[in-house]
Each structure stands twice: as C-alpha cells, then as structure tokens.
Amino acid sequence: MSLRITDDPAADELLSRDPLALLIGMLLDQQIAMETAFTGPLKIRERIGTVDAATIAHYDADEFTAAFSQSPAVHRFPGSMAGRVQSLCAAIEEDWDGDAAALWTRDDPDGATVLKRLKALPGFGDQKARIFLALLGKQCGFDGDGWREAAGPYGEEGSFRSVADITSPETLTKVREHKRAAKAAAKEAKG
C-alpha cells in the first residue's frame, strides 16, 4: 500500500505503513485542509519521537498540547485536538491492545462490523467512520464483506467524495470540486 494523500512523501510513507498514523490523520481531518490533517501524524512523530498508542495516551497532556502548538501547528485547534488524539490512542491501547489495524483485521470482520468499531472510537461519528471505512476498502486492501454498502456513498466506485478517493494531486482537485459543489447545493437548498 502506498498512499498519496498529502503530497509530502515522508507523511504519505508514514500513513502507508502505520495504521495508527492513518487513523490519527482521519481524526484530525476536520476544519482544516485534508493534506494538513494527514501530515499531522508526521509532525507528532517528529515532535515526540513516536506514533505509538500507549506513548501518546500516557504523554503529559500539557506537553502533548505544546507539541501540537509548535509552528506549524498540528491543527488549528491544538488544545482540543491534542486531547482527542490522546483519547483515541487510549481507546486503541485499552480496547485493541495498542494495534489500530486490529479494528479491521481482528476476527476477519465484515464491513458493518468495522463501521461499528470505528463509530465506537472517540472523535469518530457516522460520517468520519464511513469515510475511513471507504479509505480502508479503496486504498488499504480491506475486503470484508459489505464494506462498500457500509461505507455508503463514500464506498461508491469512481466517486470523488473524500480522502478515500485521493490518489494524486489531480484526484485531490476532483474531491475539492465535489465538496465545493455539495456545499453550494446545500446552501442553495436552505435558500
């Protein structure tokens, strides 16, 4: 698996080989550009030395927030997002023995099971969980039964709705265009 989400080879390499880094990137993907969110795990690793669930979960909260706040900041809301990342890592440590990939590999789960597991994580609502499931299915080799159906519209083949569909700068542009059109349609519908 070789993801191309951020246009930063080092960040993409980390996302490609470290399931927790990918999960953290997805968590950070709100209220900032997608590529900024997904470079967050690399910034975390550079600042604290690792992307490990137990280490992050037990890291001093003030020091972790300070690492998030260093320029360039990991997220535009460093305090709240640092706390969310620590909560996510605590859940991975406690419920999945520190192995983020176990969410989609333990007991050979189907798509609906993985969706349920993702939605149980701190910071993962229905939409974020469906997008991440689509990313697993489209780019990370997850082939559990019914994953496309569980991912909803994000699982549609040939769509350009989310980070699950980004494989190049060109597809990033297509995803951005789709999001702009969807926002404009929603705004028009409100009238």
Question: Which helices and strands appear, and what pairs or packs with what?
Answer:
Layout: H1 9-17, H2 19-28, H3 34-48, H4 53-58, H5 61-69, H6 78-96, H7 102-105, H8 111-119, H9 126-139, H10 147-151, H11 169-190
Helix pairs in contact: 1-2, 1-3, 2-3, 2-6, 5-6, 8-9
Question: Could you explain how this protein is built, in words?
Answer:
This protein is mainly α and 191 residues long. It has one domain (9-159): Hypothetical protein, domain 2 (Endonuclease III, domain 1). It has eleven helices and no strands. The protein has helices at 9-17, 19-28, 34-48, 53-58, 61-69, 78-96, 102-105, 111-119, 126-139, 147-151, 169-190. Helix 1 packs across helix 3, helix 2 (19-28) crosses helix 3 (34-48) and helix 2 (19-28) packs antiparallel against helix 6. The longest helix is centred in the C-terminal third of the chain and has 22 residues, at 169-190. It is globular, with a radius of gyration of 16 Å. 37% of the residues are buried.
Using brief descriptors, characterize the structure shown.
mainly alpha, Endonuclease III, domain 1
